[in-house]
Structures are given as C-alpha cells and as structure tokens.
C-alpha cells in the first residue's frame, strides 16, 4: 500500500486513521519520499493555536521550483507542463514542456534579480491568464521573492490597497487582456493604481494585445526584450521551510483585505498530495482547472500542485461563453482533458443554455469532474453528472479556503461514494469539528454546527501579512484551540459533511468572496448616501447576488433613483471591481437596528430573499416600524 496514492475506500480509512493518530510520522513519510530537499527538517511539527504559531518541517531547506521543475527534467523534460489555451480559439494553443518552462522561469528569475528583487521582497503580479502569469509566480519562488497575485478583475483602487499593504517593490502586468469579445486596459488600471503606490520601483509589462500604451520612463519596461537578454539558467535560492512563499488577499468582515501568508514546505507537500489523490492524477493525464491564478484555486491547483506532480496543466485565458457556450467542451475535446475542475456558478450558467453546446463535443476523455468555491446545488450537480460526466466521471465537491491552502473535505474519486451537495469526508490529515453556540463540540452524526478544524495541516496559512493579531482574532478566538472556518456545515448519518454556507459577513457571489464592509464603505462614500447595508439573496446562476439597502442624505432625496443606482454601482466598480456590483438597490428611510445600534442583517436578508413569513421577534428593535416600510417597498 502506498500512502501517497489512495485507490480504495478501505485504504482511505486506514491512511486517514494513521494520519490522525500520528500526524508527524505520517507527514514526515510523505515529505521524505516524494520531494527533493536541500536539507532535512529537524522537527516535523510544532504548533500552538492560542498564539497562533504553526511550523511544519522546521529546519528543512528547499526550493519549491526545484520540486516543480528541475527534478522532472531528467524524466519528463519533453513532457508538456503547461498547455496554454488562448481566449480566441482561432489563435493556436501553446505547449510548454518542462524543459522550456524551466528555462522561461529561470530567465524571468534573472530579470527580477537584475531589477534588484531579493529574497523576501514582495512582487505584485497583475496579469491575465497567459503563460507569463505562471512563469512570474514560479520566478518569484525561484529567487525567494514573495509573490502577491492580484486577480486582474480588481479595480485600480483595490490593486493599490493590496500593493501598499504588503509594500510591493515591483509589479508585473501586461499591455492589456482579452476577455471574450472585449479587451481590457490592464496597464491603464495599473498606472492609476500606482499614483498611490510610491513603493513600486519597476513595472514589467508583457505584450498581449499590442495596444498603444504609455510607458513611464525608468519605471516601466517591456518584458520580452529583458527576457531575450536574460540567461536561461538560474541557481535556485535556498529557502527555509517556513519562509513565506506568497501572499494572497481575501475579503474579510472589515474593510481591509486580509493578506494570507503561505509558507514553503508545508504548502508544497499538502497541495501536491491532495492534487495526486483528489484528481487521481496519472502520468499521461491532461488536467484542467478553469479558475484564474489570481485565486487560491489557481495557485494550488493550476500551478503548484500539478507541477509538483509532473502533471500537464491547462491554462485557459478565456471565458465559458466565448465564442459560444460550447467553449469549455470544445477545449476538453481538443486537449483530451481527463480531469476538469470548475465552479458551480459556471455550471449553472452553462446549464441554462442549449444542451447541444455540450452534446456536440466528444467528452469521453474525462475521468474526474471537480467543483469548488461555493455549495453546488442539487440541480447543477445532476446536470454536470449527466451531461458532462455522462454518469461515468465521479464529481469531487471540494471544500476549502484561501486560508487552508489546499482541499480539506472532498471525495476521492473512484474511492469515496459521492452524494450530491456533499463534500463527503475529510481528506487525509484533516480533523474537522462542528461547534454549537456554547462553543462546545457537537459529537455524533446527523448534527449541524459551525465548522472548525482541530489540528494543523501542512498548508494552513501562518499569518495575515503585517497583522498577526487580526489572524488570531479572525480564526482562533471564537473556539479555543481550534481553527474556525467561518462556514456552517452538517454531518449526516454516515459522517459525510455538507457545507451550508458562510456564517459571517462574507457573501459568495459567483464563487468570489465578498465582504459586506468594503462594499458598504464604498457606497457610503457617494455624496448622496448617508448609510447602507448589504445582504445576499439567492440567485440561480451566481449562487448569491447582492441586495443593498441605502439611506439617502437630504441632498439625494430629490434625485432620479435609477441614475443614483448607476452611480453607486459605478463607484463600487471603481473601488472594488465589477464583481461586487449590486443586483438590487432599495432606497429606505432607515435600517432595522438593535438597541446597541447594530444592523439586524437577519431581517434584511429575509426581506431580500422574499421570505418574510417568519421574521422573528422585531419588537426589541430600536425602530420596529421600519421593517414594514422596507417590506412594502422591497424589490
Ligand atoms: C466556500 C476557495 C461549499 C466556503 C477554494 C469557503 C465552498 C469559501 C466550497 C472559501 C464547497 C469553497 N462547498 N462551499 N465545495 N468550496 N466554499 O477563500 O464558504 O475563495 O469558506 O477559497 O468558499 O473561498 P476561497
């Protein structure tokens, strides 16, 4: 039996028990047998959730890119590492072998060094899904610089906040990006952001759309000529196991985004191990995750996890609807994709379209289907299973978070029997707990509670950049000696987990986490707005959509309401990005508040969801009369 590759349910249970009984021995064996190290660790794990302080493989030295690239060259040098599938199907796909990827990463690493980037410096990457994105990420890791990838759909304001929060010295972007039939002026967004970012010394610009852009002298440099000049080999920086590998921002319940810090060795071990098992990756498979590398899913399961296993990973620049709704399936057929990993929101959008878009393609290469980012509803699950998997490819409903680094609860395909809407069993090494409102653990089955994790796993985030206290407060204070996920979950009669959704002020829209606070802050800055509250309501494609209740100042009262709605959404687009736009905006004269002044979001949520049969006791509100007024005018 190999602990590295689980193939039967009995094996899962055996390995799981082993991983929980003696986590140190278990992870030590995985680390030892499947990775290359410059120096062995002195200690497998030390941890204290009260501080919190978590260290895996302390004392070890390595470079993650030697594990993702160099070590594959003797055996897989000519194997395709990355298939780049462009936005426009008329443009040819690019096949980058492990040897070529190694060389391109080394060149990029040398360019970064030449621009003065050293180990520990932060580099902001704001790129579309083109090979340069994966290459930049790996080049940072090569020289020990900490990458901070910002999803290229964020606005210049959001980009500037993230650049400044972690004091990035250099930014990498492109002259623009393609998105379906549109082009986006990425460089313009960067230029605007950098007006507020004095710390950025250099900007490297990849050419993608051949647009005419302004290059700021001394600051901006076209990337290609620098790469052409650069040497094609590079001696990897030797990193400590706990040296930061990257920062990735996620929304929280206050305005400032949280820069989650992931470190090197544990992250590598866990993403590689989960990738191998949860996608049952075999040597000649072609794996495709449709996420953007700007999110954790792309970091862990487009770049690091697949490459650490010597896999072929597809990078897709486009969108599911361009040139038509068959685009995903055309790509599956074209590259004979074996594992396909996407988000429920994409499945729901495609399920609305004509079935012919799926049926006209040969999808017989598929072996495993994946889902991530939000609960997958039963209808979408069946559509995916019937029409894409033809009932032959198990669906892995993978639950995890930016903070967890890797997949935490998921079936193992061909091993764990699946049930629609259930993420099923904890992955190897993961010890979940459900907690009640008295902070007691709820034991047994057929129970529901708040989802926590009792024991560290190798890829848990170690801190929030520059704010360790916030890290502790957000994740480790609600329940003693536990990591709190912010999600609710139930455990059924056979011990399967089903995630029921967020229990905090984060709303997941089309798979993107959005904190209510930053959106409210943005609305409140509108000169006509006095106060606002945002809640989520069910939406058949996006999962949730945003409903805003807005109190106007006197100056706003007489204004055209539709114009105001447009202005408010425009403001959100500029400050956060188009993903945070509100679907509905209701102007109200007040918000229901408790006597201590807290907005009663529970009531607002019910009104937005058109579910007002049981609003609960409203008599204790400071202003109970407002509830009826809001209900009468609900949209
Ligand atoms: C939600 C994405 C139900 C959950 C990897 C979590 C899910 C948040 C699932 C993290 C799933 C993710 N079923 N809910 N399979 N996967 N979520 O940080 O609420 O972008 O806390 O990481 O997405 O989102 P994040």
TrEMBL record:
Q: Does the keyword Coiled coil apply?
A: no
Residue span(s) of domain AMP-binding enzyme C-terminal: 519-598
Q: Where is the Acetyl-coenzyme A synthetase N-terminal domain?
A: 12-68
What Gene Ontology molecular-function terms does this entry list? acetate-CoA ligase activity
Keywords of this entry: Acetylation, ATP-binding, Ligase, Nucleotide-binding
InterPro entries reported in the protein's UniProt record: Ac_CoA_lig, ACAS_N, AMP-bd_C, AMP-bd_C_sf, AMP-binding_CS, AMP-dep_synth/lig_dom, ANL_N_sf
Sequence ranges assigned to domain AMP-dependent synthetase/ligase in this UniProt record: 71-461
Q: What EC number(s) does the entry state?
A: 6.2.1.1
Q: Kind of enzyme, top EC level?
A: ligase
What the entry lists under Pfam families is as follows:
ACAS_N, AMP-binding, AMP-binding_C
Q: Which NCBIfam families match?
A: Ac_CoA_lig_AcsA (TIGR02188), PRK00174.1 (NF001208)
Family per UniProt? Belongs to the ATP-dependent AMP-binding enzyme family.
Q: Name it.
A: Acetate--CoA ligase
From which organism does this entry originate?
Maribacter cobaltidurans
**What gene does this protein come from?**
acs
């Amino acid at each position: 039996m190999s602990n590295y590759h689980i193939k039967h349910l009995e094996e899962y249970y055996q390995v799981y028990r082993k991983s929980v009984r003696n986590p140190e021995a278990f992870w030590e064996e995985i680390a030892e047998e499947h990775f290359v190290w410059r120096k062995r660790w002195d200690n497998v794990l030390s941890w204290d959730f009260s501080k919190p302080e978590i260290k895996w493989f302390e004392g070890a030295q390595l470079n993650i890119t030697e594990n993702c690239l160099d070590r594959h060259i003797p055996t897989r040098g000519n194997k395709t590492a990355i298939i780049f599938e462009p936005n426009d199907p008329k443009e040819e796909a690019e096949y980058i072998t492990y040897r070529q990827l190694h060389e391109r990463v080394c060149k990029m690493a040398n360019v970064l060094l030449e621009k003065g980037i050293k180990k520990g410096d932060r580099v902001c990457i704001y790129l579309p899904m083109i090979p340069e994105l994966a290459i930049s990420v790996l080049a940072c890791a090569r020289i020990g610089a900490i990458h901070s990838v910002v999803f290229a759909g964020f606005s210049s304001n959001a980009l500037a906040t993230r650049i400044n929060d972690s004091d990035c010295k250099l930014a990498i972007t492109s002259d623009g990006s393609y998105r379906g039939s549109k082009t986006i002026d990425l460089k313009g967004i960067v230029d605007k952001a950098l007006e507020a970012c004095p710390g950025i010394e250099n900007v490297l610009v990849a050419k993608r759309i051949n647009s005419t852009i302004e290059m700021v002298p001394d600051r901006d440099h076209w990337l290609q000529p620098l790469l052409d000049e650069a040497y094609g080999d590079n001696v990897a920086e030797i990193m400590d196991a706990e040296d930061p590998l990257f920062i990735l921002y996620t929304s929280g319940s206050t305005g400032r985004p949280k820069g989650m810090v992931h470190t090197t060795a544990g992250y590598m071990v866990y993403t590689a191990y989960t990738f191998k098992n949860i996608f049952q990756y075999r040597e000649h498979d072609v794996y495709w995750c449709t996420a953007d590398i700007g999110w954790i899913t792309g970091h862990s399961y487009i770049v690091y996890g697949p490459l650490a296993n010597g896999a072929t990973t597809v990078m897709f620049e486009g969108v599911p609807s361009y040139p038509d709704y068959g685009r995903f399936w055309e790509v599956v057929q074209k590259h004979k994709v074996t594992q396909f990993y996407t988000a429920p929101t994409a499945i729901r959008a495609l399920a609305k379209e004509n079935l012919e878009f799926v049926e006209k393609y040969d999808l017989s290469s598929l072996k495993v289907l994946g889902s991530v980012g939000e609960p997958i509803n039963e209808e979408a699950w069946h559509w995916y299973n019937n029409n894409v998997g033809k009932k032959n490819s198990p669906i892995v409903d993978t639950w995890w978070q930016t903070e967890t680094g890797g997949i935490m609860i998921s079936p193992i395909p061909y091993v764990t029997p699946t049930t629609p809407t259930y993420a099923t069993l904890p992955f190897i090494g993961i010890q979940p707990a459900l907690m009640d409102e008295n902070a007691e653990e709820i034991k047994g089955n057929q129970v529901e509670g708040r989802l926590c994790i009792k024991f560290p796993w190798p890829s848990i985030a170690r801190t929030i950049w520059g704010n360790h206290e916030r890290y502790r407060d957000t994740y480790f204070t609600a329940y003693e000696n536990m990591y709190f996920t912010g999600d609710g979950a139930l455990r059924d009669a056979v011990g399967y987990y089903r995630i029921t959704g967020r229990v905090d002020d984060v709303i997941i829209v089309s798979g993107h986490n959005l904190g209510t606070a930053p959106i409210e802050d943005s609305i409140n800055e509108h000169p006509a707005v006095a106060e606002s509250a945002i809640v989520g309501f069910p939406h058949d494609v996006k999962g949730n959509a945003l409903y805003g209740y807005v109190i106007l100042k006197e100056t706003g009262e007489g204004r055209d309401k539709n114009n105001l709605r447009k202005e408010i959404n425009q403001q959100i687009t500029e400050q956060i990005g188009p993903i945070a736009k509100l679907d509905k905006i209701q102007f109200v004269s007040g918000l229901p508040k408790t006597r201590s002044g807290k907005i009663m979001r529970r009531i607002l949520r019910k009104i937005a969801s058109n579910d007002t049969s049981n609003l609960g006791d409203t008599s204790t509100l400071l202003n109970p009369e407002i509830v009826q007024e809001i209900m009468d005018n609900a949209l």
